[in-house]
Specification:
By secondary structure, the protein is α/β, with parallel strands linked by helices. The chain has 23 helices and 30 strands. It binds adenosine-5'-diphosphate and iron/sulfur cluster (SF4). It comes from Kaustia mangrovi.
Amino acid sequence: MARDPRYDILFEPVRIGPKTARNRFYQVPHCNGMGYRDPAALAAMRGIKAEGGWAVVCTEEVEIHHTSEITPFIELRLWDDRDIPVMERMTGAIQAHGALAGIELCYNGLSGSNLHSREIPMGPQALPISTFMPDPVQGRRMDLEDIRNLRRWHSSAVRRAVRAGFDIVYVYAAHGLGLPQQFLSRRLNDRGDAYGGSLENRARLLRELIEDTKEAVGDDCAVAVRIAADELCGEAGLHKEEVHEVIAMMAELPDLWDLALSDWDNDSVTSRFGGEGEQEPFVAGVKALTTRPVVGVGRFTSPDTMVSMIRRGVLDMIGAARPSIADPFLPRKIEEGRLEDIRECIGCNICVAGDFTMSPIRCTQNPTMGEEWRRGWHPEILRARESEARVLVVGAGPAGLECAQALGKRGYEVALAEAGMEAGGRVTRESRLPGLAAWARVRDYRLQQLHGLANVELYFDSALGAGDILDFGFDHVAVATGCHWRRDGVARHHRTPIPVADGTAVLTPDDLMAGGRPAGKTVLVYDDDHYYMGGVLAELLADEGFAVTLATPAAEVSAWTRTTMEQHRIQARLIEKGVTIRPHTAVTALGPEGVRTACVFTGREGAIGCDAVLLVTARLPEEGLVEDLKAREEDWADAGIASVRAIGDAFAPGTIAAAVYSGRKYAETLDGPPDTGDTVPFRRELTALEDPVRGLTVDPACTPVRGSGRHPDSSGRRDRASPSRGGTGRARRAR
Ligand code: ADP
Ligand code: SF4
């Protein structure tokens, strides 16, 4: 199908300095938890974005110098020439598909604790390091020599970036992470020299770095600036008016302006707290200040919103991190007129959690994210089926839906049986809770895909038992029957049930999602789950007029949502809605009048009166069906059944992302070699060992340098081998 002409404007080329972007789709820099540890996987992930039609594909922040690094977070590094081959792998993967490769060079200054290098961080003034952890590290004030050094290091990194083949090199002054922003912001810059005081002075370092970068890149590489559009702390910090002034001062100096709210949690707001295009008020007006292209983000998934951003003169290019993670093929789908195939980001920030947990990126909507290289998965292309096997999938929650659609795309004949009258399972239920409506996209995308698959049948009102399944005679049975919340208080703090006195009103999230409500007025929510559910249900009950207390053994509400960068918003919302929060509190016994509690530190006992208790604790898999089938294993052969496996929450309750991934994994591996656990079922890279004498890195899977420690020419000369230019040798991948 051809694209709708009203989207033509999105496919106009855009000039960025000496380069031309083929369209207006711009994958802005984003973290991914892979960085220097998983470079091949990272390159493949970026390459898929280019294949999916993005005109520009950027790295995450790239540390330019060992005196500024953000361990334990895993980003890319360009500390010296030995890092160039990793970068070349990425530029190659991106440019192979006709996209421009951008690199976000970063000197973290007061946002990097240097836990790895143990160098003392430095910034505009002496202050404790502000990062995502309260490391006991303070930075020192940079003097003029430090600034000269920094400028030289930055230029060296720029030259390395150009050697690695990047088309666009960034000066990074955003998210509170880039040093030039720290100089710009009056709350971090108290200097009395030429780099402090007036806005012009505070902007001096940014100007110098842009000028240095322009000089270092030469004629065939563009220079972009990523700048904080607002720090959202009013006059105390960098704010929109000042930022616009800075842009006006240097309007034509860089080749592109990329705007992002600061800090990162303000930039990547979850859908619970912000909608599509919500940064527009901060970016509007910038285009009038410069002729250079302006990029901005806003979790854009609707092509109509994108067109409106361009037509109304807000942006020149549609910046995206999360929409490009959820659907690396978003531009191609618009171009090919396949809007219904767009896998829209749900704004859950599970992708961000990858970075915060230092694990490879994952995405709720896109189970192939981060698996492109290590498992060979592709977001759009699946291996053709390898047999005529017919598969029954039981349960149409996220695991069952993903499993059925992926099996269908492989060409298998599939029946998807759902007990209820609607699809989506937990996603449908949870998307009805406050702020979670966008999560229904997980269901909607997969239902849409099923409509286009003649080989997949979806049956509602089909609660299947073991007998039914044996009668049907499918070759394989995937059981995706989900899970239920426990009613006995067992979770993390309590590993055995909490005593419950007769007459106590105990509810679980399932009860509330099914429409049940407490009989009285006061409810205690006991959250020993620590993700979103406890906070969301406290909000729901408060909205409905209940007097709500939320007790948790953790220090804060919904503690794990720190990794999705929304914990502070959740806690603020609950406080605003009048929910009483009792941290560090374990519930030890439940009764009709209330609960007994214990301080998690001292064990000191207490009590909280309430009419009902909502237990948000652990969940139990719905494994009855698998057990019934296993109990009749001797009948399988007659019924033609070769395998029965639980997937998703029915195998082990987890996130929606984990359920989708589980469904995909089943579909990707059906008819493949059995995973017995005896070999690692995915590719990984190993650190290349350095030869003790030559200093050369050697591939640990290959024979080390001849003579183990002696230089092969026996001259005794220490050949430190000039750092590689061509990307060979120094960082060879272990097979
Ligand atoms: P997951 O997150 O693993 O996909 P969900 O709980 O979201 O799990 O979805 C499970 C789905 O399975 C629900 O829609 C439920 O109605 C359905 N289901 C549970 N038991 C059966 C059964 N025996 N036969 C058919 N469908 C079932
Ligand atoms: Fe969007 Fe969630 Fe995927 Fe991140 S993990 S890209 S927020 S759907």
